[in-house]
């Protein structure tokens, strides 16, 4: 009996969290559609850079033996080595340089989301004529619950969404490379294991 109650409670908790997550995403989009889209694209690009860097580094290391056999950097193999070195530097710098700008935009968007949520709460509170409802304990309890339930800090939720997106894109792109270069069953197994671990730890 207790096991059934526990399972039901877990399902309700997951359902509530999913609904809250969707509500949080809607709040983020309502705050600034342009910033929401731009930061989403930046998160996807940021998630791809680790895979690009790994591919560039592997290609660079693989080009070293042929360049050594060629004897000089002016040989075709030497030119290929220099191109790979350029891409290694580009992918490394391409992820590190924009980080400070993206971080600043994250903080700005975080503040905007929090302010937009406060504005919505104030509009809902002031939409009722008079102030009698502000003296109603049940109304105040419901208002307090609405401002603290599941995501007490919507700004932190907004920042976490983009970080989560970056991590997901990084993992999936790495799995695609494993599938293309080595073996698709191994790639699927990696993604499945990663999903189970992420779910177990609530990520």
Write the layout of secondary structure elements.
Blueprint: H1 2-31, H2 33-70, H3 76-96, H4 99-126, H5 137-148, H6 154-181, H7 184-200
Helix pairs in contact: 1-2, 1-4, 2-3, 2-4, 2-6, 4-6, 6-7
What report would you give on this structure?
The protein is mainly alpha-helical and 203 residues long. The protein is 86% helix and 0% strand. The protein is built from seven helices and no strands. It has helices spanning 2-31, 33-70, 76-96, 99-126, 137-148, 154-181, 184-200. Helix 2 (33-70) packs antiparallel against helix 3 (76-96). The longest helix is centred in the first third of the chain and has 38 residues, at 33-70. The two termini are 29 Å apart. 13% of the residues are buried.
């Amino acid at each position: 009996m207790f096991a059934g109650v526990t399972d039901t409670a877990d399902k309700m908790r997951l359902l509530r969290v999913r609904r809250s997550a969707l509500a949080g995403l809607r709040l983020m989009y309502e705050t600034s559609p342009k910033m929401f889209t731009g930061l989403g694209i930046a998160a996807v690009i940021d998630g791809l850079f680790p895979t690009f860097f790994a591919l560039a580094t592997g290609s660079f290391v693989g080009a070293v033996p042929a360049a050594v056999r060629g004897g000089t950097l002016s040989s075709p193999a030497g030119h290929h080595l220099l191109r790979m070195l350029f891409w290694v530097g580009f992918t490394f710098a391409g992820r590190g340089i924009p980080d400070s700008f993206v971080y600043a935009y994250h903080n700005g968007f975080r503040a905007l989301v929090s302010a937009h949520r406060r504005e919505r709460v104030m509009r809902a509170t002031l939409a009722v004529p008079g102030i009698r409802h502000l003296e109603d304990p049940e109304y105040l309890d419901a208002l307090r619950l609405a401002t603290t339930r599941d995501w007490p800090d919507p700004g932190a939720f907004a920042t976490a969404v983009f970080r989560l997106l970056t991590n997901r894109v990084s993992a999936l792109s790495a799995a695609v490379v494993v599938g293309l270069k080595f073996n698709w069953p191994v790639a699927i197994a990696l993604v499945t294991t990663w999903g189970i671990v992420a779910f177990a730890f609530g990520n």
